[in-house]
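Reopening this ticket.

The earlier resolution said the output was attached, but the attachment link was broken on my side. Pasting everything inline this time so it's all in one place.
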Amino acid sequence: MSRGQRVDYVVCYDITDPRRIQRMHRYLRRWGTPLQYSVFHCRLNDRERQSLISGLHEKINEKTDDVRLYAIQASGRILCLGQKPLPEEIQVYGLHQVFAGQFDQSGGGAHVPGASCPDRRPS
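Inline output:
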């Protein structure tokens, strides 16, 4: 990945201490969009990914907690059953998604109706 190129990541965590859970959630909200309470979508370049990982190391107990980052391939597909994973006002481009069994192949990727996805990164 080139230095400025952004890659989509799914970041998820399983934290054992309730206070660390709250801290982790607040920290990750600075970097991305929550999909579920302990699952986030983040769009990061290499420098931002390294900074996120460094901050995660500071916030977890490496003996009891589990945090994972999964890179999402640009042509990957997402199968969503039940409730939509993102609020109506968020759009995610570059991914193909399946909502309620219907594959969205509109050119340019997946689209969740509404405004564009906020770019959340620490200032």
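Reporter confirms the inline version is readable. The first strand starts at residue 7 and ends at 14. Residues 25 and 37 are 7 Å apart (CA to CA).
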